[in-house]
Each structure stands twice: as C-alpha cells, then as structure tokens.
Amino acid sequence: MNEERTRVEVQGNILIITMVRHAKRNAIDGEMTLALDAALNRLEDEQDLWAAVITGGPEMFCAGTDMAATSGTPTPRGGIYGVVGRTRTKPLIAAVEGVAFGGGFEVVMACDMVVAATNARFGLPEVKRGLVPTSGAIFRASRVLPLNVAKQVMLTGEELSPEQGLRLGLVNQLTDPGAALDGALAMAEQIIANSPVAVQQSLQAIDALASANDELGWELTTKARKVINESEDAKEGVAAFFEKRPPVWRGR
C-alpha cells in the first residue's frame, strides 16, 4: 500500500524519499502519511543511513493535506504526515520543485536544509480557506523567516518566491528547474563526508535549542484549530474551495 505513495532509494549512506502521488500534486492522504513515516523510521533505525533527501520529483513538491481524504492519523514517531512532529537525529534535506503549499511548506520547514529550484513556489494559503496552519508553521515560520515576513506569509496567504526564500535564509541553495534533487544530493554528500557521530550530535544540540518552545507552539496550534473548527468561516472556506468560487466571510 505504501509503495503507491512514495519511492524510497538508497544511494550510499543517503536515503532518497520521493513522493509519487503526482495526480494529486502529492497531496498527503493517510497512505502517504504511513509511507513517509516508514521511510523516516528507516532513516533513524538503520545505522548505515546518515542523511536523507525528501522530494516530490521534478514537477512539484507537495500541495499539503488532501482536503477530501484528510492526511490520516498522526503517527507515534512522526506526528502529522509522519514528518512534522518527529525528533530526528540525522539530517533531512528538502529538494523543492514547483508547489510547496500549506502542509507541503510545513514539511519543508520541518527539514534541516532546503535546496529549491527557481520554479519553486512556497505558500501558506490556509487563511484563504478560513483555516490556520496546523502542522507546525504557527511556530516554525518565524524560525525560518524574519518575524514580519512570517506574519505576511501566513496572514495574506500569498506566495513567497524561491529568490526571496534564498535572500531571507529559508533556502540554502537555488538551482535551475529540474536540478533541486541533484543539488540536495550534493549537499548530503558534503554532510556524510564528515563523522556521522559528530553530525548527529551537532544536529541534536541545535534542534534541542531551536525547539525548546515547541510544546507551547503545539498547544497554541491546537487552541487555534479548535476555534477554527467551530467557526462558520472554516465551513464556508472549505465549501468555496470545493465549489471553486470566492468565499463569503462572516467573521465568526
């Protein structure tokens, strides 16, 4: 079942995870959550795997949650999508081509480094649907972007270009279209040329400091989600999305 949602390959000490639900722009359903969780469990559990790259292929990264099917149940080790609630000891690099919207952008934020092609598109359009980001962006966006830019991205729902992402520090490296995976693999090769023990200890120390307030972040996300789930605006936003029409907001 999971093979229908991801392709997992090993290149030396690097695990390559490719989302393959292209007909749905790699929108994450329950099966993809399980597949991503299994791949990242493998990364953690196999001693000879020292780093990983996650990609959606040469045309897209991920459009976020499948709004019709939902993303399934968060996994014990990985949380939402099997990715964004995970405590990792090994580096994960996002190779981004095309859209990384909503939960797809939140998967990018959960990675350690980002290589993006010039055709990449980053965005958190939840407010346009009467929703809020629920997979970490509420507290991670202001880590990977300046605070005011994080607010702009979340409150307008407008896109952030890869060039802006590079200038602001979200993106580590920019490539030509079709070359993000190669760029990410080259970066992973630089990492695995070093002591895996030193890399893993450094990553864990950095992440422990950066994520010290994550518990509060998840609590605030849950609080916001509860309000949204009870609102008329959320029902209208989702209905308008499926009916392909502009929403009519009521502010309650």
Rg, Cα atoms, Å? 17 Å
**CATH domain class:** Alpha Beta
Q: The CATH topology is what? A: 2-enoyl-CoA Hydratase, Chain A, domain 1
The strand order across the widest sheet is: 1-2-3-4-6-8
Question: Which range does the strand content fall in?
Answer: 5-15%
Shape: globular
Helix/strand-derived class?
Answer: alpha/beta
Could you provide a short overview of the structure?
The protein is an alpha/beta fold. The protein is 42% helix and 14% strand. Helix 2 (103-110) packs across helix 3 and helix 3 (137-144) crosses helix 4 (147-156).
Describe the structure.
It is a single chain. α2 packs across α3 and α3 (137-144) crosses α4 (147-156). This protein is an alpha/beta fold and 252 residues long. The radius of gyration is 17 Å and the shape is globular. The chain has a single domain (2-178, 196-208), classed as 2-enoyl-CoA Hydratase, Chain A, domain 1, CATH 3.90.226.10. It has helices at residues 30-45, 103-110, 137-144, 147-156, 162-168, 180-192, 196-210, 214-229, 232-243, and strands at residues 6-11, 14-19, 51-55, 92-96, 99-101, 113-117, 121-123, 173-175. The chain contains nine helices and eight strands. Strands 1-2-3-4-6-8 form a six-stranded mixed beta sheet, sandwiched between helices. The chain has a two-stranded parallel sheet with strand order 5-7.
